[in-house]
Design goal:
Elements (H helix, E strand, L loop, with lengths): L1 E9 L6 H11 L6 E3 L21 E8 L2 H14 L5 E10 H7 L7 E3 L3 E5 L11 E5 L11 H13 L5 E5 L5 H8 L4 E5 L3 H13 L6 E3 L8 E7 L2 H14 E13 L3 H10 L3 E8 L2 E7 L3
Parallel strand pairs: 6-7, 8-9, 8-11, 9-10, 11-12
Antiparallel strand pairs: 1-3, 1-4, 2-3, 5-6, 12-14, 13-14
Helix pairs in contact: 4-5
C-alpha cells in the first residue's frame, strides 16, 4: 500500500498558526499528523555529526492511503489551508509504505532528557553512562519518542515526581514511553489508555522490550480506581474535554501532569485547572509548548 502526503510549511513566529492548521484538519476528521521542527535540543555528543538530518523549517505533514477519494480530500485541504495566515507553502506527493515507515527513523537518535533519562531507538546502540536510565523505544507509528518538547516535558516530570510505589495512569499512552520511564523510577502500578488499537500494540511491545511485565492497557477510562500520578500528553482541546474524568482519576495528594498545550492556550488551560481547584506546582515551557504539574489537595 502506498500513501499520499500533504506537507504544510508554516511560519512559527505567526501566533496561532499551528492551532489553525490542526483545527482545519479536524474538520476533515484528521487527528494524526507529523510535526516537523528544527532540532533545538541536541542529541548526545556521540551523534553530533548527525545534526544535519534535522529539518530547518516548521511543518505539519499529513499521510493518507492512496486512492481517488483521499487525493481529492488532500486537494481540498490544500486549497483551504493556503488561505490561513502564517502558512508559507504546501507540498503534495506520494511515498511507498516502506519508505514512509523507515525514513522518519533518520531523525530518531539516542537523546538525553532531564538529568538521567536517555531514550534510544531499537536500531541504535548506546552504552549507558553511570546513573543513566535508558529507555528503548520502537514507536512504529505511535506518538512518543521523547524528542518532541511535549513528551520531553512529561519525561522530566516523571523523573521528578514518580517515586518508589507510585501508581501511574498515562492517558494517550502512544508508544508507552512515559510508562516505561515510570517503571524505571520504581512505580508499582502502570496503566496506559489510548483510543488507537495500533498504539496500544506498540505500547505493549515497548513495555515488554524494556522488561516491564506487569501493566494494564485499555481503550477506556472507565472504572473508579485512582492513581497517585496521572499523565496526559494530548492537545489542549482534548485535555479540556477529558479534564473532569482525569481529575477523578487522581487520588487526594496526587499529581496530574499535563502536556501538549501551545503557549497561546495557557490562559484557557489555567482557567480550567483553577476551576477544578488544582494547584499548579510546576510549569515548563519549551519550543512554544507548555506543560503543567498540578496537585490535588488532601
Amino acid at each position: 500500500m502506498d500513501f499520499l502526503f500533504l506537507e504544510i510549511v508554516y511560519n512559527e513566529l505567526k501566533e496561532y498558526t499551528l492551532e489553525r492548521i490542526s483545527t482545519l484538519l479536524e474538520e476533515f476528521d484528521i487527528y494524526d499528523f507529523e510535526l516537523k521542527e528544527p532540532m533545538k535540543r541536541s542529541p548526545l555528543d556521540y551523534y553530533a555529526n548527525n545534526l544535519e538530518i534535522s529539518p530547518d523549517y516548521y511543518a505539519v505533514k499529513v499521510y493518507l492511503e492512496e486512492n481517488e477519494e483521499n487525493k481529492n480530500l488532500l486537494q481540498e485541504i490544500e486549497k483551504r489551508v493556503t488561505c490561513l495566515e502564517g502558512v508559507k507553502h504546501t507540498v503534495q506527493g506520494r511515498v511507498e509504505e516502506c519508505e514512509w515507515k523507515d525514513k522518519w527513523k533518520l531523525y530518531f537518535k539516542p537523546t538525553k532528557i532531564g538529568n538521567s533519562i536517555v531514550v534510544r531507538p531499537t536500531w541504535e546502540a548506546y552504552e549507558a553512562k553511570e546513573g543513566e536510565k535508558v529507555i528503548v523505544i520502537d514507536p512504529k507509528m505511535a506518538f512518543g519518542t521523547g524528542t518532541h518538547a511535549t513528551t520531553a516535558h512529561c519525561l522530566r516530570f516523571v523523573e521528578k515526581y514518580v517515586k518508589e510505589g507510585s501508581t501511574v495512569l498515562d492517558i494517550g499512552t502512544g508508544s508507552s514511553i512515559l510508562l516505561v520511564a515510570s517503571h524505571l523510577f520504581k512505580a508499582s502500578k502502570l496503566k496506559g489508555v489510548d483510543i488507537d488499537e495500533d498504539a496500544l500494540e506498540s505500547a505493549r511491545e515497548n513495555l515488554i522490550l524494556n522488561g516491564v511485565t506487569e501493566f494494564d492497557l485499555s481503550t477506556s477510562l472507565d472504572g473508579s480506581e485512582q492513581y497517585s500520578v496521572v499523565i496526559a500528553n494530548i492537545i489542549c482541546e482534548v485535555l479540556i474535554e477529558l479534564f473532569e474524568s482525569m481529575v477523578a482519576k487522581v487520588e487526594r495528594g496526587g499529581v496530574l501532569m499535563l502536556s501538549g498545550i501551545l503557549e497561546e492556550k495557557c490562559e484557557k488551560m489555567e482557567r480550567v485547572i483553577s476551576h477544578y481547584q488544582l494547584e499548579i506546582i510546576e510549569k515548563a515551557s519549551e519550543e512554544g509548548w507548555v506543560g503543567y504539574v498540578c496537585n490535588k489537595g488532601n
